[in-house]
């Protein structure tokens, strides 16, 4: 195990698209990793493919506790609470991270169980419209942003307290895990994360659903004439409705703010087009400038639900526990930068 790798085994709870893809990448790196899947049939498939997985949750958590493993929660938001309860019972000393797309709701569940000091939140900005173990794949996270939360350290620092060594080591290993799957770790506090993903991940789902409905209402002719722009704009409408609901409904306050802003822009465009001299100049110019700025900042991976590649962003080489390291995280967050552990 090299110094740049996670310094403990990894136990992944939930082997769908994201959890399964993490498992595949870590196995390819020959890192000790095992997992749990609620689906017995999919567990059997993964076992036949040679992966170390089980459908027995207490058993795998007891193993994680014995190993001192890093536990990765990769289940839908509505299952997070029960998984945390199981961890509290069967793996009471393990460090925890997650890959859920909304962070405030997860952190609230963590705080309710007094697990703050052994939790570091995470969210990989990668995926497809498909779900399940059978759609997991190696290389899914290559070049993608992976948000990593540090609210606990930020609160300790604000009180003038030293961040506990256990949490510092946990944070370092979560960052190392993202490096092992070739993602880019981006430090962010929970509220800022949820506000940002409302704009760049959850609002696109709402707009895609609307566009798909409007296009479909055009009947057979509209469907037959639909080309690239329509298909690009509606691609994530192919995501399982239950997943869309969990993402959007658990981030409702931030999503409503983003939706209000979008509705205001759409209303202005509608009024301009309904004028005696129809015009969409203002919206088109502003949108073109915004897209140009985004393209200059990031590259896109077409297959990803939330395609962000951030190799052009500033990099901070971080040593958790060093003087002022939490302040460095805040500075990196303000720049949208990425971090590496050394």
TrEMBL record:
Keyword terms, alphabetized: Oxidoreductase
A GO molecular-function annotation: prephenate dehydrogenase (NADP+) activity
SUPFAM superfamilies given in the database record: 6-phosphogluconate dehydrogenase C-terminal domain-like, NAD(P)-binding Rossmann-fold domains
Gene Ontology biological process terms in this record: tyrosine biosynthetic process
InterPro entries in UniProt: 6-PGluconate_DH-like_C_sf, NAD(P)-bd_dom_sf, PDH_C, PDH_N, Preph/Arog_dehydrog, Prephen_DH
Top-rank taxon, per record: Bacteria
Pfam family, one: PDH_N
Occurrences of domain Prephenate/arogenate dehydrogenase (ranges): 8-305
Family, per entry: Belongs to the prephenate/arogenate dehydrogenase family.
UniProt-recorded name of the protein: Prephenate dehydrogenase
Source species: Corynebacterium flavescens
